[in-house]
Design brief:
This protein is mostly helical and about 150 residues long. It is built from 8 helices and 2 strands; from the N terminus they run αββααααααα. A two-stranded antiparallel ribbon has the order 1-2. Strand 1 and strand 2 form a beta hairpin.
Length: about 150
């Protein structure tokens, strides 16, 4: 290697017109080539800022579907359809980042966690403990400051 390239100084290159133009150092070329342009497609992080809200919304819709099937199969009373409608409404509003939907989803997962803990304490049913733990995780995600700040 020559002393000129190892010292970090940039060399000059003659263009076709005969003028000497200084080269950019290799470190600047690598940095310029790695920067994404602003006109490219939006990143996934910008499109979906809180992926946990999507998971909670899908969970609420799944619970609503189970309730609807339970009412149709006569396992639950028809009054439970009110809960199903509330879960679907909360899930839709949560996807739109609405604060009232956040409150509805927060109360739904908290009450479901308490209900499943009670079922486990009375019947010692392990699946209710797992579902209660999942509801507790969703509750703890919803009360985070980052989630509350993104709502409107």
């Amino acid at each position: 290697m020559s002393d000129e390239s190892s010292s970090g100084e940039s060399s000059s290159v003659e263009s076709s017109s005969g003028e000497a133009k200084p080269d950019r150092p290799a470190s600047n070329l690598a940095a310029i080539g790695s920067q994404p342009s602003k006109s490219s497609q939006p990143q996934l992080r910008d499109l979906l800022p809180l992926p946990g809200l999507l998971a909670i919304s899908l969970y609420l819709v799944m619970l609503a579907a189970v309730i609807i099937l339970g009412v149709a199969g006569r396992h639950y009373p028809p009054l439970f359809l009110v809960l199903s409608a509330a879960f679907i409404t909360a899930a839709a509003g949560l996807m739109m980042l609405l604060r009232w939907a956040w409150a509805a989803a927060l109360s739904a997962v908290f009450l479901l966690a308490c209900y499943n803990a009670w079922i486990f304490s009375v019947q010692h049913n392990a699946p209710s403990l797992v579902q209660g733990g999942l509801n507790l995780v969703f509750f703890l995600y919803l009360v985070r400051a980052e989630v509350r700040d993104k709502l409107r």
